[in-house]
Amino acid sequence: MGELKITCDPEEVGFDRDRLRRIDTHFASYVDDGRLPGWLALVSRRGEIAHLSTYGARDMASGAPVETDTLFRIYSMSKPITSVAAMMLYEQGALELTDPISRFIPSFSDMRVYEKGMAVKPVTRPAAEPIRLWHLLTHTAGLVYGFQHVSVVDEIYRNAGFNRGMPRDLDLAEVVDRWAALPLLFEPGSQWNYSVATDVLGRVVEVVSGQSLDSFFAERIFGPLGMTDTGFAIDADRADRMASLYTAGPDGRATLLDMGDTAHRQPKALSGGGGLISSAADYHRFTQMLLRGGELDGVRLLSPRTVAYMTRNHLPGGADLEEFGRPVFAEVPYAGVGFGLGFAVVQDAAKHKALASEGEYNWGGAASTTFWVDPAEQVTVVFLTQLTPSNTHPIRTQLRQLVYQALVD
After folding, report:
1. Ranges for the Beta-lactamase-related domain (predicted)?
2. Which of 164, 262, 278, 381 is spaced 20 to 30 Å from 407 by Cα?
């Protein structure tokens, strides 16, 4: 869709140009002292890109710089895309939010809930409530992630071969059926716990649409929006644009995490929860579609009312994640933040203790990437880097401070 570039004078959309530069100065220090390899920051308002900057390397060994067309593993920033796919099918009448997912995936018909005991011999009971579609969209299904190392059920997942990622020899249908055989952490709808729920949702999209997840994304979302660089793998002619992945070493400095050729090989199990590779230009287009109520450049994926419904708090009783969620790994404080259908939603900025607008919705990825959409201020932000885990540094809260202090109209 053309070169990614600044499209307006920042002052025209209410930003102070010098204050925006604080973003660059602050995060340059992360690179200069070795905490991050490199990064890209994009800030837009009212559909215009007011700030676009890059710093550091996409590959520290070669010194190749981060550029505006660099490709990044966006991990859990895949989740909002999968959620949009499911809601597109909802708008067709193909499914309802209250549908038990066993309607689409029969292996989820007779779920059991963990009660007590060790991972090797857990005591379980039959679930009183089926997992429903809205439970997947809100992470209230009772599913888990093995890598969290918090509950016995996490350990059960790891023992079954599910720590990070999916076994290479299984397709998505097989992976989901194996999860269905494992106990739930709690009764569906009773608590919030970050989990493989969006991967299960991706399988629902496949069953309902009759298409593989990559085909649905390509035909119904990426193609129409012009997201030409987003997918589950990259081809050879784009290989040199791919950013290397790093982890925080014992000294706090970014250390290469060898991913082999995984970015170049189409996975057998397509992860709607964390499998996509994308670019700043592509993800910016996705955020603009959301900001505009489901439409961009004459292409409509969702109705404005559906987007508004997705981006309100769906946790029972209006609870926030601190009240309703399990105390697990988190990149940002849970206080004052609810959860919608695929997005975290700021409910109370004062309680959240971060400069933000009520109604802003967001999510991030395991390699310290993040985005948010602020309908009140008509602001969208995309920040891309490649450092795991994503709670190593307070990037997300600091980025909010730096963006909103520059908004002066």
Report:
1. 24-400
2. 278
User: Is residue 378 packed enough to be buried (19+ CB in 10 Å), middle (13-18) or exposed (0-12)?
Assistant: middle
| Count of domains observed in the chain | 2
Among 224, 223, 221, CA closest to 297: 224
If asked whether residues 116 and 176 sit together in one domain, one would say yes
DSSP string, 17-58: HHHHHHHHHHHHHHHHTTS-SEEEEEEEETTEEEEEEEEEEE
Domain extent for 155? 95-203
Amino acid 186 reads F
| Element holding 83 (H helix, E strand) | helix 79-91
Instruction: Convert the pLDDT of each residue in 163-206 to its tens digit.
Output: 888 888 999 999 999 999 999 999 999 999 999 999 999 999 99
CA pair distance 40, 28, nearest whole angstrom: 11
Asked if 195 and 328 sit in the same domain, the reply is: no
pTM of the entire predicted model: 0.97
| Cα distance between residue 246 and residue 105, in whole Å | 36
Q: How far, in Å, CA of 268 to CA of 86, rounded?
A: 21
Contact 148, 329 (CB under 8 A): yes
Distance CA 81, CA 76 (A): 10
